Amino acid sequence: xxxxxxxxxxxxxxxxxxxxxxxxxQLLTQxxxxxxxKEVHKVLxxxxxxxxxxxxxLFLMEKAMVFHAQEQYLDSIETFLLASDLARQLYTVRISKxxxxxxxxxxxxxxxxxxxxxxxxxxxxxxxxxxLAKKGEVLERVREDKKVEPARKLENREIAQFMSRARSEVxxxxxxxxxxxxxxxxxxxxxxxxxxxxxGGFVHENTDTINDLQTAYLLYQDARDILVKNYGGxxxxxxxxxxxxxxxxxxxxxxxxxxxxNYISPTHYFDELNEYLEYKILSLSKKIRPHxxxxxxxxxxxxxxxxxxxxxxxxxxxxxxxxxxxxxxxKVPDKYYFGLNPDNFQGGGQKVLAAVGQVAxxxxxxxxxxxxxxxxxxxxxxxxxxxxxxxxxxxxSFDFELPKIQNxxxxxxxCLVVKDERDHEVLKRKLVIVNPIGDIxxxxxxxxxxxxxxxxxxxxxxxxxAVVASAYGAYKAAGGEQGTFSGIAAMASFLAGSRLIKASxxxxxxxxxxxxxxxxxxxxxxxxxHFELFIIGDQNKYSLGKITISDPNxxxxxxxxx
Length: 562
Prior knowledge:
The protein is α+β, with helices and mostly antiparallel strands and 562 residues long. The protein has a domain of 145 residues. It has a four-stranded mixed sheet with strand order 10-11-5-14. A four-stranded antiparallel sheet has the order 9-8-12-13, with no helix packed on it. A hairpin with a 4-residue loop joins strand 8 and strand 9.
């Protein structure tokens, strides 16, 4: 019995906070998609989960996203600044927290943010600065001290300042990406953000100085390379993504064209984005580097539709649509197995097992405790680059949870439709997927789960060793094979301990839940006039509202979240 009580105490020591926040995240996403922002703020401000210090980064990211959706850009800027500063601080590992997470589970730890989430902070901050400058006014806002600041027009110097900050944010964003590249070199994981190049190119292109246009031209070139070098690992863009990820280490010796030829089986989403980027590069080349144009045409070998668009469009685009589509798939628990090899139970506090042979112990676990055989398991997502440790099939095993993103293939094709004031369709163009956030999140979480598998499995094996020892002690005390109730005593002891273990090992399913599932983009030129814009999909239709073009040379950005 002494073993039983010491085992229980050990297990209780390991029990940590439960995952929590599931209900709150569901409410957040439901209210957000209904655009009921009052209720979203209420959930964030009143939820015990989001008040916890360990979840502060999550709170700030979610809060800033709501302000952005409300077009309260100044509030969003201030909140994202806090989130960005905190993310940088948390990047320096808190040793005490890491040790606690190693002993307990990840729910005990501070939420540090995934790499793609830290990158998207910069994207939304860039949009905040740019959109605020273009809007030219600050909406009425309620400060933290409850004082109301009335709506006001921005002064010209403020507009220039916010445009400058948009460019500076792009630089900070690219500096973060360089950090990812240096740390994650040689791995097919998220370490480069095509949106950093694409949105950065957009900001520089719309500044319209010759130096900014040159920078935009180079950023679009980089984006085209990233589509092959990094985004070939995502199923939305590449049907051969598994082969791509499996041979990623070979790529430096092959060169980008060989990778494109041998490892990219482009989906239509890949082709659409590639054509969009080639259009952007060739259009700018014709404008600022005409001597490079023919050379690029030979290198790219673009489709006739791309060349026709470049030749046909005598005007630079004056309207860009950025569509934040749907909601990111949820992060959910997934079941895995780990082997109970009796070799792991010998010595230490488990001396009761030292005299028990492997055959006897395995027989006890399989026939008395009814634990199962299981074949080798790897992380459930095909995106994982690290294979899981095998479960030795001749031994019993236990199950536990790790998180995964419940991703779904992108299937909704969306078109931008423009109608004039007489309700006549004047333009129809497909929106291009520029960032498959669901794919990126799935890979990021699978990568972490791959690393967590052995760590978590080993930790749990020690816990189960204590429970098995307690159950074996109860079994022997009740007479072993000769005892009438020995099996019942063993099972009761084991079930009591295993329930405590399961309570202590809920998967950490925290994530930035208000992100879109993907981002889609397109450029167009509209003459003077009044227009109404729609996005039409296979199943849905969204109205983006009306727009008046009074100066065809002025640049417009419509950033819309459905």
